[in-house]
Specification:
It is a single chain. The protein is mainly beta and about 300 residues long. The protein contains 1 helix and 27 strands. The strands form 7 sheets. It has a 4-stranded antiparallel beta sheet, with no helix packed on it. Strand 26 and strand 27 form a beta hairpin. The radius of gyration is 25 Å and the shape is globular.
């Protein structure tokens, strides 16, 4: 019985130790962040210890367990697409620092929804954007003149010529290129622009089928957050609309931020001035905070 209990105790201890190790590894993985040392970038844990040595020229935060990194060489690196050499290339690493995709892109972007966009660079007649999976397999070869954001809600805005549409994570065009400009989806809606008779952008919102839900009528718009989106009118003022396009907070502020946790920051220009770091005179602003009804949570105060 004593021998059995000893084996049971040792087994439990082994399991507990394994769980602690796994939990510690997961915790480390979740907190790896880019950090610089002697001009190179690596990744540190929450205590600031280098887990991946600093050897990259640029490094992005981890997204979906991989990170895009850039390496450079004064002697040049072989660029597979053109069979020439370039000074810098991007690839992807895992959280051990091992390459999951060797450096071979002029520009590479974070993985979102299992895919990432890449750019071939301006040195060839290609100069296009494509889409890859985590194995480096091309979901869509270099096809678009631009893919302006990562994939959110499974879609990303792309440009062919001067028109914008949306592509999904399978590389299929789901909304044809017919807009003058476009931004990423958020809460099921995406900002798109048309040009009016004066060749000025006017903005509205579409749903995932490409249907105009809020017809273009704003000078500028933001993304929906907590069912509200900021908009700018043609007098340079900002307010908020809901998902039906109804103006719920009138355009009366000189700038606003997106809603977060039930509030948004608002800014009001004053007659006072200051000089920025470039020596340019700028208006000083009062900053406050409003709730979803446009009521002040904190009244605007002059910023230092």
């Amino acid at each position: 019985m004593t021998h059995f209990l000893l084996k049971l105790l040792l087994s439990c201890l082994a399991i507990t130790t394994a769980c602690v190790i796994v939990a510690a590894a997961q915790s480390t993985e979740q907190t790896l962040s880019p950090a610089k040392l002697d001009g190179k970038l690596g990744y540190v844990d929450s205590r600031g210890r280098f887990i991946i040595p600093p050897k990259f020229d640029e490094a992005t935060p981890f997204s979906e367990e991989v990170a895009a990194v850039k390496i450079c060489s004064k002697d040049g690196l072989p660029y597979p697409l053109t069979r020439s050499t370039v000074l810098c290339l991007w690839g992807y690493i895992d959280k051990t620092g091992a390459y999951t995709i060797a450096p071979k892109y002029i520009a590479a972007f974070p993985f979102i929804n299992g895919v990432a966009r890449y750019w071939t660079g301006p040195w060839t007649t290609i100069d296009k954007y494509g889409i890859i999976d985590k194995n480096g397999r091309e979901i869509l070869g270099p096809t678009f003149d631009s893919i302006s954001t990562d994939f959110f809600e499974g879609l990303a805005p792309f440009r062919i010529g001067d028109k914008w549409g949306y592509v999904d994570t399978k590389g299929e065009i789901v909304i044809s290129a017919r807009f003058a400009s476009a931004d990423r989806f958020s809460e099921g809606l995406a900002p798109v622009a048309e040009k009016n008779k004066y060749n000025v952008f006017i903005w509205g919102f579409i749903d995932r089928s490409g249907k105009l839900i809020i017809p273009p009528r704003f000078s500028s718009v933001g993304r929906f957050s907590e069912s509200l989106a900021k908009f700018g009118d043609f007098n340079g003022k900002y307010g908020f609309v809901d998902t039906s396009g109804k103006v719920v907070i009138k355009a009366k502020f000189d700038y606003v931020t997106d809603f977060s946790n039930g509030s948004a920051e608002v800014y009001i220009r004053t007659n006072k001035k200051y000089f920025d770091l470039h020596g340019t005179e700028q208006p000083r602003m009062k900053a406050g905070k409003i709730d979803r009804n446009g009521n002040f949570i904190s009244k605007p105060m002059l910023q230092p």
